[in-house]
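User: Fold this; tokens only.

Assistant: Input:
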Amino acid sequence: MYVVVETNDTSGIMFGCAGSEYIGYLGTSTNRPDSEFGTPTYYVDGVDNSITTRTAFTTYVKTGVPVLLGIQNGDTQLWGDFQSTLGIGSYALNNSLSVNGKYSEIIIYDSDQSSARTDIEDNINTFYSIY
């Protein structure tokens, strides 16, 4: 998954499904920024910053300027009907914990694209001039 996002929010969920599944929880907590998503690696502007907490995730994403967020090795097997229940900027069905911001591009692959990560990020960065 690759996302170009711009936000100043300090709390909320960037992507969520109908249950307790989410990716990109902004906040101040030592809890993971994801739930029911395996153990993903978060790249911000092409760099693996070892993000494992909501506080760290928020520090790197809440900048007020566009950020290229690459997420690899996530696992959505527990997400049920991912295609019809993905919420962008909140949980899918109830808009709770919404994130105010601008999503310029969202790319979701249904297969492992880790070998192409730098090419994908370079392509996105060439278009948006993020870093």
